[in-house]
Design brief:
Pfam families: Glyco_hydro_10. By secondary structure, this protein is of the alpha/beta class. Helix content is 38%, strand content 12%. The structure holds ligand G3I.
Length: 384
């Protein structure tokens, strides 16, 4: 008897622990929306855009080297309608020799998009990673700011043309330890990456002000199409904090765990703050790592995805939503993380069906569903 009670207490404690780790979420796909069979997001998007009053761009990453091509062909017709080159528009690919523009892969991704009626977003013109070998460590601050950055930004944005919906003009330039009260310069210096420190590991500053960001943006502004959005794109952003204040592209590399994502209300507050400033927001690189590829975690992932999508859909100023890597076997987070909408064989996961359901709900003119990723005790979804 005693051992039964002990094991029952242990089981209860374990159940409580598991429940906390994987909330019993409520999903629209539990209430009559499709949870199996074909997904027709592409055919719903025009009605989504009609309700938004402008085109809603929903898509994912692509590079021509990615296999299997036939799966991409199908998915960028029927599900995704917006393309970002995962690596092909980065500085190492687009200016492999100083002053020599090579937009081959970036253009190929753009052509892939155009051929399927997809729009295209640009990622990125400036990042401290994936730089060409000729660049870091070889120039003075004034050469970099006065010549190298403007020339690169101009040749890339100009070369890709005015149809690009948005460009990540600078990527990941704010430190994770940025706090309220710091100046923008202090936030950027706290990043402690090239070019505000040299690339030789000495920690010596190269650029000591925000001139490199200004150079990139002023060139982008002068070169981009009139409707192209220009972004500071960064991770660990979306809530009410100093780092978020400096970004408008919210990467959203998330984890399905308490504290691993922002709540829908935090996102809504951030989007609304930007809207009041007349600034657009976008979800640029969404994925959600799972502790375990179990049914409970797949449902948790679906709820978080649904909440992020709703936050963007129901905001007046969010019109781009990118899923970073379209399937688990191609994800930079690794197959076991199961961080994308489609599994390692390209089959839709609960999150893909939930995304479709949220789009249908929005397109039908329904009010915004409550936030589901905190569990059913907080919110229970219903179809009507
Ligand atoms: O192209 C080479 C290939 O020639 C070589 O044989 C192979 C050997 O490792 O490497 C290939 O390059 C890889 C490249 O992806 C293309 O597949 C690099 O090693 C690899 O580091 C690179 O990873 C990319 C990563 O950025 C680089 O930091 C990921 O695909 C890409 O998803 C990831 O994307 C970034 C965003 O741009 C910015 N935000 C964070 C996000 C995730 O890290």
């Amino acid at each position: 008897m005693a051992s039964l009670i002990a094991s029952s207490v242990a089981a209860t404690l374990l159940a409580a622990h598991v429940a906390q780790a994987q909330p019993a979420v409520s999903l629209l796909i539990d209430t009559g929306y499709a949870s199996s069979g074909p997904l027709h997001v592409a055919s719903i998007l025009p009605a989504v855009s009609a309700r938004k009053g402008q085109t809603f761009h929903f898509g994912s990453t692509y590079d021509t080297t990615e296999a299997p091509q036939s799966w991409f062909d199908t998915m960028f017709e029927s599900f995704f309608k917006h393309v970002v080159s995962e690596n092909g528009c980065k500085w190492d690919a687009t200016e492999p020799e100083q002053g020599v523009s090579n937009l081959t892969e970036c253009q190929a991704c753009h052509s892939f998009a155009t051929a399927r009626g997809n729009s295209f977003r640009g990622h990125n013109t400036f990042w401290h990673q994936q730089m060409p070998a000729w660049l870091p460590g070889n120039f003075t601050a004034s050469e970099l700011v006065g010549n190298i950055i403007p020339q690169h930004v101009k040749q890339e944005i100009g070369g890709m043309g005015p149809s690009v919906t948005s460009w990540d003009v600078v990527n990941e330039v704010v430190g994770d330890n940025a706090t309220t009260g710091m100046t923008a310069l202090q936030c950027v210096l706290s990043k402690a990456d090239w070019p505000t420190v040299t690339a030789d590991g000495s920690g010596i500053p190269l650029v000591k002000d925000l001139s490199f960001i200004y150079a990139a943006f002023s060139t982008a502004f002068a070169t981009a199409g009139p409707n192209t959005r220009l972004a500071v794109n960064d991770y660990n952003t979306g809530g009410q904090d100093a780092k978020t204040e400096l970004a408008i592209g919210f990467q959203s590399h998330l984890t399905a765990a308490v504290g691993g994502f922002y709540t829908k209300s935090e996102l809504a507050t951030t989007f609304s703050t930007l809207a009041k400033l007349g600034v657009e927001a976008m979800i640029t690189e969404m994925d959600i790592e799972l502790a375990t590829n179990s049914t409970a975690f797949l449902r948790y992932q679906a709820a978080i995805w649904g909440d992020y999508l709703d936050a963007c859909l129901y905001a007046s100023n969010c019109n781009e939503f990118i899923n970073w890597d379209p399937r688990d076997d191609l994800s930079w987070r690794g197959l076991p993380a199961a961080a994308t909408l489609f599994d390692g064989e390209g089959n839709p996961k609960p999150a893909a069906y939930e995304v479709a359901a949220r789009f249908e709900n929005f397109a039908a003119g329904k009010p915004e569903p409550c936030s589901t990723s905190s569990g059913t005790s907080v919110c229970k979804l219903s179809r009507h």
